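Protocol step 4 of 6: structure prediction from sequence.
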Amino acid sequence: MRVGLYPGTFDPITLGHVDIIRRASMLVDRLVIGVAINRDKGPLFTLEERVAMIEAECAKLSEQTGTEIVAHPFENLLIDCAHDVGATMIIRGLRAVADFEYEYQMVGMNRVLDDSVETVFLMAEAKHQAIASKLVKEIARLDGDVSKFVTPLVNKKLKERLG
């Protein structure tokens, strides 16, 4: 069974994330969405809320693709999380060249830690390349319309949280 790990904070999950999850699910038998517990970032949504949104969105994708998709919170090294869930592949989404520069360094470090875990990059579709959770939250905080960047469920949760 091929297991892939797609890590991130997903605060909140966006249409860009959903696109990468959908496409990654076609590459593996089981896709683990690693939900990072990053206390330094001060997330808008709690870990439990982020996991619940991911599970709600991924249930539909899992049904469509036939791939098991699960959310898995983690606070350790990414490579250790990959070991914990039995992943042999880390999936990373790229939006721009700046993303690649950072990810390139991460791959190098992860390869030194364990060269049996491969990293696969998926380019975001053009219509999703500008979407970033940080920007979505900023637009939502300023009472802007984020419906083009998130699912209806996430849009509702943003409105509830930010008023």
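Step 5 (inspection) to follow. The mean pLDDT is 94.
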